């Protein structure tokens, strides 16, 4: 019932202390978070910013809220979209989700007359 053998910590683990193992594990978790969460998100934001900066008049775009339109005018951080014949809206540039082909807009049921 009693423990006959007593095991002592080795010299190496006694010098490192219990805190060092925890710090190593914490550092590994932070590295995993950086490479799997933070870095890909930063890359995605950079790509989106480059896409928004490359917008020009006449591009067909899909907004982040699902509206398709054609860029009529770009002014600072605002763009004017034609979403239907003679229907224009003004939106923030950063809400553009993607640049799409004209075929996508023509096949969209909401834009048909």
Number of domains: 2
Mean pLDDT score, rounded? 84
Q: What distance lies between the first and last C-alpha atoms, to the nearest angstrom? A: 88 Å
Number of helices: 2
Write the layout of secondary structure elements.
Blueprint: H1 11-53, E1 60-63, E2 68-75, E3 78-84, E4 87-92, E5 96-100, H2 102-107
Antiparallel strand pairs: 1-2, 1-5, 2-3, 3-4
Kindly list the characteristics that best describe this protein.
single chain, 113 residues, alpha+beta, SH3 type barrels, five-stranded antiparallel β-sheet, 2 helices, 43% helix, rod-shaped
Structure description:
It is rod-shaped, with a radius of gyration of 28 Å. The chain has helices at 11-53, 102-107, and strands at residues 60-63, 68-75, 78-84, 87-92, 96-100. The chain has 113 residues and is an alpha+beta fold. The chain has two domains: 12-54; 56-111, SH3 type barrels (Roll), CATH 2.30.30.
